[in-house]
Amino acid sequence: MNQPTRVSLVVTPHKGIRNFLSQLSLQAGATDYADRTEVTQLKR
Question: CA-to-CA distance for 24 and 22, rounded, in angstroms?
Answer without folding.
Answer: 5
